[in-house]
Specification:
about 300 residues; alpha/beta; D-Maltodextrin-Binding Protein, domain 2; six-stranded mixed sheet; five-stranded mixed sheet; 12 helices; rod-shaped
């Protein structure tokens, strides 16, 4: 028998008759008329090729065939109710799942400890996994469920992803405490003339600085280019370098080393830090819980959007 030709609405009728052994009670349970129930029973008899129920002085009695169907039918309907029709939920206190977050190196250094503390306090059974991915890898990782969220400044992610603004990241100049500029306000000329270590992140902040200096006829004395902000502190400590870094990262470096932040002498727009996720997981309870936690922790807006229009 081809299941596509079967009216599955007949299955609850058979289940109700098996449970109540009464057409009146079954019809009441299903909120349907007795005539409609009788019609449904006739269709069941034709479908299964069996009388199914015999009327006796003690009500309807199931045939052997109907009795055989009682247990598997009840099991099927219960599974549909509990696993298909039941709205999914996420109980943070009892959850035993892995949540995976993609961060930039700055996010890993600055945000990750705070994320871990917040999740452990509210969902002690949740396992956290940190992924450091290139911007070009993030969209596919989100689509395939390799990561649940991506957090950072990623201006080139596709508009098809959902996103939510968390906070802005301003940039500062960072030098060692013993640097000649540690106690002076930076000027355009002193900034450009100071040897620098540079990280060219997806935010393109370094390119914007170069463009701003060029408008004033200046160019930076760039000495070292690094792939990661986390490689900067030893170079600052060992030499006369200056580095342009996110303000939150400068604060974190200063807590573990002897560094001084200075206001940049050029106007650089702040980078917007957002969390991104794929539409496949927009209604997933665990993903929704994690997003709500991130928004609460980092001051995000509650309404998600598609694309970069925040």
């Amino acid at each position: 028998m081809d299941i596509r030709s079967v009216d599955l609405n007949l299955l609850p009728v058979l289940d109700a008759l098996l449970r109540h052994r009464s057409a009146t009670l079954a019809a009441r349970d299903l909120n349907m008329s007795q005539s409609a129930l009788s019609t449904a029973l006739g269709r069941l008899r034709t479908l299964l090729g069996d009388e199914l129920f015999v009327r006796t002085g003690r009500g309807l009695r199931p045939t052997a065939r109907a009795s055989e169907l009682a247990e598997p039918l009840a099991d099927i309907l219960e599974r549909v109710r509990d696993r298909v029709l039941q709205s999914p939920s996420f109980d943070a206190q009892s959850a035993r799942v892995e949540l995976r977050i993609a961060h930039s190196d700055v996010g890993a250094y600055v945000l990750w400890p705070r994320v871990v503390r917040a999740v452990r306090a509210r969902a002690p059974g949740v396992r956290l996994s940190l992924k450091t991915l290139q911007q070009s890898e993030i969209a596919l990782a989100l689509a395939e469920g390799q990561v649940d969220l991506a957090i950072g400044s990623y201006p080139s992610l596709p508009d098809s992803l959902f996103q939510q603004r968390l906070f802005e990241r301003v940039y500062v100049a960072l030098v060692a405490a013993g640097h000649p500029l540690a106690r002076k306000a930076l000027t355009l000329r002193s900034f450009a003339a100071t040897p620098q270590v540079v990280v060219r992140a997806p935010s393109r902040v370094q390119d914007r600085i170069d463009e701003e200096l060029a408008r004033h006829g200046l160019a930076r004395l760039e000495c070292v280019e690094l792939p990661s902000y986390l490689m900067i502190p030893p170079l600052l400590e060992a030499g006369d370098f200056l580095a342009v870094v996110p303000g939150q990262l400068a604060d974190a470096f200063s807590r573990h080393g002897n560094f001084v932040s200075r206001k940049l002498p050029v106007s650089v727009p702040a980078s917007v830090i957002r969390m991104h996720w794929h539409r496949r997981f927009n209604e997933d309870p665990a993903n929704r819980w994690l997003r709500a936690l991130m928004a609460e922790e980092f001051g995000g807006e509650l309404a998600p959007t598609r694309g970069r229009g925040l």
